[in-house]
């Protein structure tokens, strides 16, 4: 038991030294108070997901490794599988650092090797799917295509239609990113057929969102909005509140109509979703900064929401986001000041695809 407690003592110290958000402290206490392997693995998974939501990527990496170590000490196959295939790595942002992506890919590879050794074809496909997703987010489309195509053979003899739907959606995303609209549409349509046949509300809603993204990429806002409204009708009929949060978030991102964001925020509060409550705050901050171009109000909102502020601190990009506030409010000198403070971190920690976006914004301030 002493071997089990060693890494958890580090977590306890972590909470005393660095914790800035009450929920973080609560989750760390839950880990340290867990009295068996099952409870501890579950609690560590919740903590890792929290760190991923708040973009504290290095903390998330550390907690995932501890979770896997605890699961392996238990020798419980179900716990090992749970640790290797948890949800925390499924939502990494495309603006994650290079080190974060590399560690995530390495961790997923462990899951892939485990699945192959145990002849778990569904999990083998999940691992390929997750690697493809990360490569796409890094704009490494050839690697993404290779991995998603490796996932399909793993499901040849399986009957997991839900997973097949997700594979078609990811392949469609890759093709859409590469500019192959027709092939992307075909794959989204394949996903729709399976989700509709299975009457899987969550996946059918996701398909509507993917069609919305496709139409939006073509500049067809009306058709994109119509696709999202189809999802609203479906989720309203089925009482899927989480699905409705996603619907209203994407409707707001498409149209910049504040009422959609208000409804998304209300529903996120109703289901007490930490992920979506924080994401709605980020959207509101960016709306004030970029759409309204109201620097004082945007900064006031940022400073009055500690969880929002801390998420940017965890991400290591607080100066960048303050810079965007000043850039879009017509104060380029102040924007340059904050962007230049962020430049060393950007050069050191991020992929070229992210750096190019950053330097383009910086260059615009000199025009």
Descriptive overview:
The chain has 367 residues and is mainly α. Among the domains are: 68 residues, Alpha Horseshoe (Serine Threonine Protein Phosphatase 5, Tetratricopeptide repeat); 74 residues. The chain is built from 20 helices and no strands. It is globular. The N terminus is likely disordered.
Topology:
Elements: H1 2-18, H2 22-33, H3 37-53, H4 57-74, H5 77-84, H6 98-117, H7 121-137, H8 141-154, H9 161-177, H10 181-198, H11 201-217, H12 221-238, H13 241-255, H14 258-270, H15 274-291, H16 295-303, H17 306-315, H18 318-328, H19 332-349, H20 352-364
H/E element order:
HHHHHHHHHHHHHHHHHHHH
Distance between the termini: 62 Å
Major sheet summary line: none
Rg, alpha carbons: 21 Å
What is the percentage of strand-forming residues?
A: under 5%
What would the principal axes of the Cα set say about the shape? globular
Q: Give the % helix.
A: over 70%
Tell me the number of helical segments per DSSP (H or I, 4 or more residues long).
Answer: 20
Q: List the uncertain runs.
A: 1-7
Question: Taking all residues together, what is the mean pLDDT?
Answer: 93
The structure class reads: mainly alpha
Number of beta strands: 0
What does this entry show, briefly?
By secondary structure, this protein is mainly α. It has helices at residues 2-18, 22-33, 37-53, 57-74, 77-84, 98-117, 121-137, 141-154, 161-177, 181-198, 201-217, 221-238, 241-255, 258-270, 274-291, 295-303, 306-315, 318-328, 332-349, 352-364.
List keywords for this structure.
367 residues, mainly alpha, Serine Threonine Protein Phosphatase 5, Tetratricopeptide repeat, 20 helices, 0% strand, globular
């Amino acid at each position: 038991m002493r071997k089990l407690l060693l890494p958890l003592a580090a977590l306890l110290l972590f909470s005393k030294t660095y914790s800035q958000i009450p929920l973080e402290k609560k989750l760390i206490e839950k880990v340290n108070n867990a009295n068996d392997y099952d409870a501890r693995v579950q609690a560590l998974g919740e903590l890792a997901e929290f760190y991923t939501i708040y973009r504290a990527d290095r903390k998330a990496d550390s907690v995932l490794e501890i979770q896997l170590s605890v699961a392996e000490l238990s020798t419980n196959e179900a716990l090992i599988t749970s640790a290797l295939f948890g949800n925390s790595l499924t939502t990494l942002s495309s603006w994650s650092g290079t080190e974060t992506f590399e560690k995530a890919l390495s961790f997923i590879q462990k899951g892939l090797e485990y699945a192959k050794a145990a002849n778990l074809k569904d999990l083998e496909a999940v691992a390929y799917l997750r690697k493809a997703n990360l490569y796409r987010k890094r704009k490494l489309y050839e690697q993404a295509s290779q991995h998603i195509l490796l996932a399909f053979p793993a499901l040849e003899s399986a009957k997991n239609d839900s997973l097949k739907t997700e594979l078609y959606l990811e392949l469609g995303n890759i093709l859409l990113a590469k500019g192959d609209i027709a092939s992307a549409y075909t794959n989204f349509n394949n996903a729709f057929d399976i989700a509709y046949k299975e009457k899987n509300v969550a996946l059918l809603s996701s398909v509507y969102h993917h069609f919305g993204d496709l139409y939006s990429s073509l500049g067809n806002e009306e058709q994109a909005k119509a696709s999202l409204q189809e999802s609203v009708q479906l989720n309203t009929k089925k009482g899927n509140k989480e699905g409705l949060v996603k619907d209203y978030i994407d409707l707001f991102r498409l149209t910049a109509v504040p009422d959609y964001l208000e409804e998304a925020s209300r529903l996120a509060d109703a289901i007490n979703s930490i992920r979506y409550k924080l994401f709605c705050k980020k959207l509101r901050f960016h709306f004030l900064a970029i759409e309204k171009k109201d620097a004082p109000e945007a900064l006031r909102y940022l400073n009055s929401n500690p969880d929002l502020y801390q998420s940017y601190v965890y991400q290591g990009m607080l100066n960048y986001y303050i810079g965007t506030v000043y850039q879009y409010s017509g104060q380029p000198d102040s924007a340059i000041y904050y962007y230049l403070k962020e430049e060393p971190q950007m050069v050191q920690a991020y992929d070229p695809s992210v750096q190019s976006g950053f330097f383009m914004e910086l260059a615009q301030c000199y025009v």
